[in-house]
Amino acid sequence: MKEVLSLVIKQYNLPEATWDICPFGNGLINLTWLISAPNRKEKYICQKINESVFKQPEYIAENINSIGSYLQKHYPSYFFIQPLQTHSASGLVWLPDSGYYRMMPFVEGSHTVDTVTDTGVAFEAAKQFARFTANLRSFPVEKLHITLPGFHNLRFRLHQYRHALHYAASKLLKQCDREIKVLQEFDTIEQRWERIYHNPLFPKRVIHHDTKISNCLFDDRNKGMAVIDLDTVMPGYYISDVGDMCRSYLCALNEESTAFDEIIIRLEYFDALADGYLSEMGNVLTPDELELFTYSGRFLMYMQALRFLTDFLAGNPYYPVSHPMHNLDRAKNQLALLKQFCAHEDGMRKIVQRHLRKYVHID
């Protein structure tokens, strides 16, 4: 692999050096390496784009370049990590029989975190994701490519789920009969989504779509620096970003946990999340959008439960599993989280209103 990566490096405008190449991070989609050289201060991140997930990597490069140019012109002080350009002024290198690669500068003094164990970190990450969308509020969103068709389209996910239900083996249907019935209890989430989807006044924005905590860079004081992993940036609704943060920040246990009775919502983390996000987006979001802040959490948890259960019924074609019941357990986890979230939603709405009064003076 080092020979292939050496060929990639030569396509960029980097000084001649003997580059050290080491695997980096724990991402599940793209392969990532840290590129460094003895006696050289500069370091770089190299990634191989997973074409089984992202069918058209050039769409990702074009989106990032367009956004980077816009931010450089309109928000020159905003810290945006722009990919390096090749000799041919492209952000991507394509190698026959190997695929697409890209390189970015490594940010010294930065780090990522994998779990949210501090409300300050939740606040900072939410603020960074919100600032990203806020700074791009006037960007012509229709110019962005769709890098993952149907990614957060609940109608599409329900179609997949119902198709899987129709064709699933009777044994699998029996094993998840309870979860199927629980999903039916939350059909109002689908009804609300349809009203959003068909409302031309509900704006599509530049949305990250993958706001897990590891996609935010922090400095050595745990202050947010930038958002990273922009492959899923495309037009969307803000509820995708807020919902994904609710799904992944509010419980101390992640989606792999089978301790379903221990899945609880940490309201103080929702408080921090709402504070950070609304500090940047409170004056950007429309009144119709603001009404859906807590719905965001229900929406993402419900959709993720659907996706896990769909994969279980279809024979686990998408999510890697370590045992046959793995995706069913993940679905149970998300349904437990969804129930807990709904039980606390009245309190969350009061938290949102408190922060709105602070940032946009809404009574």
Largest sheet: 5 strands, antiparallel
Mean pLDDT: 93
Low-confidence stretches: none
Question: Order of strands in the sheet with the most strands?
Answer: 1-2-3-5-4
| Separation of the first and last Cα atoms | 59 Å
- H/E series, N to C? HEEEHEEHHHHHEEEEHHHHHH
Can you offer a commentary on this structure?
The chain is α+β, with helices and mostly antiparallel strands and 363 residues long. It is 46% helix and 10% strand. It has 13 helices and nine strands. The protein has helices spanning 2-10, 57-74, 119-135, 154-167, 170-175, 177-184, 187-197, 238-249, 267-281, 287-290, 295-313, 326-343, 345-359, and strands at 20-23, 31-36, 44-48, 93-95, 99-105, 205-207, 216-218, 224-227, 234-236. The strands form three sheets. A five-stranded antiparallel β-sheet has the order 1-2-3-5-4, with helices on one face. A two-stranded antiparallel ribbon has the order 6-9. A hairpin with a 5-residue loop joins β7 (216-218) and β8 (224-227). α8 runs antiparallel to α9 and α9 (267-281) packs parallel to α13 (345-359). The radius of gyration is 21 Å and the shape is globular. The N and C termini lie far apart (59 Å). The mean pLDDT is 93.
Name the descriptors.
single chain, 363 residues, five-stranded antiparallel sheet, two-stranded antiparallel sheet, globular
